[in-house]
Design goal:
Blueprint: E1 2-7, H1 11-22, E2 27-33, H2 36-46, E3 50-53, E4 56-57, E5 60-61, H3 62-72, E6 79-84, H4 90-98, E7 102-105, H5 110-121, H6 129-142, H7 157-166, H8 172-179, H9 183-197, H10 202-212
Parallel strand pairs: 1-2, 1-3, 3-6, 6-7
Antiparallel strand pairs: 4-5
Length: 218
């Protein structure tokens, strides 16, 4: 069972998300919060697998809450899914810097929300391919490139290929099918690549890929 906490200052939005997620049987909404500070407390108390986080709330800051949740998590959980009405907004860039694991727009299809929660629970971010790729590409463009005094570590051809496919928004399973290998093989290569480039998660790995030009052809 995937344990989820919903964070949004609109009760009707939280109710709608709860209904959509819980009707499938493998998701349990264990808590809700209407603001950033409350969200941090609820997450600390309930230890969910995934947090669905709004960014702009009347009572609390979703970016600050995301940063605090990410900084205090262990074992990669909870994953933070930003669910927002803004796709190329400064708040989204702030959430990316804070360590958010994936993005969705509030007008997404119900099955997209469910898939996003499932993918994040499985340790796979970048859940909205169109939004996330545009956000990361723009984020990377706005930030300074890697310093020339610290050249990026060399990746093996297979590691580079997997990072390139990751930048397209592909899951581990999709990459495995693309390359005709086992999912465990993809995970191993990706873990080694992340260690080499000093990325803490998949989002940072894709940012690195855009900044270094590895993802330009993705």
């Amino acid at each position: 069972m995937i344990r989820v906490v919903l964070v949004d200052d609109q009760a009707v939005v939280r109710m709608g998300f709860r209904v959509l997620l819980e009707e499938h049987g493998d998701v349990d909404v264990v808590g809700e919060a209407s603001g950033g500070r409350e969200a941090v407390e609820v997450v600390r108390r309930l230890a969910p697998d995934v947090v669905c986080m709004d960014l702009r709330m009347a009572d609390g800051d979703g970016i600050a809450a995301t940063r605090e949740i990410v900084a205090s998590r262990s074992g990669g959980t909870p994953a933070v899914l930003v669910v927002t009405t803004f796709d190329l907004d400064e708040d989204v860039f702030g959430a990316l810097e804070a360590g958010a694991d994936g993005f969705l727009l509030k007008d997404c299809e119900p099955e997209e929300l469910l898939e996003a929660v499932r993918r994040l629970a499985a340790g796979e971010g970048l859940v909205d391919r169109s939004v996330t790729r545009r956000v990361i590409r723009e984020f990377s463009r706005r930030r300074a490139p890697r310093a020339a005094s610290a050249p990026p570590p060399e990746l093996t051809p297979r590691e580079a290929e997997i990072v390139r496919l990751l930048a397209r928004g592909m899951s581990n399973a999709e990459i495995a099918r693309e390359l005709f290998v086992e999912t465990s093989t993809v995970k191993s290569h990706l873990t080694r690549a992340m260690t080499k480039i000093g990325a803490r998660d998949r989002v940072q790995t894709v940012i690195w890929a855009y900044r270094t030009g590895l993802a330009e052809d993705s």
